Amino acid sequence: MIIGGDQPSRALPDQNLIEAVRRSIEWWRLLSEEKEWSINKLAEHSSMDASNVTRYLPLAFL
Predict the structure, then answer these.
(1) Which of 62, 42, 60, 61 is nearest to 52 (CA)?
(2) Domain ranges of the chain
(3) For the whole model, what pTM was predicted?
C-alpha cells in the first residue's frame, strides 16, 4: 500500500552520521601515522570518554 502523493520523498543525508565518519577517519589517520596520539589523547582532545572513541573508530572503515 502506498500512501502519499505521486512523487516519492527524497531522503536527506544524515549530517551527524557524515560527521562521525569523517571524524573517525581523521582519528584513525592520527593513530596510525602519528606516534604521539593515543585513544586517551583523542578522547581528551575531543572532550569525550575513551570508550566512545573506540566505539566510533570502526566507522573509519565504512
Answers:
(1) 42
(2) 15-61
(3) 0.78
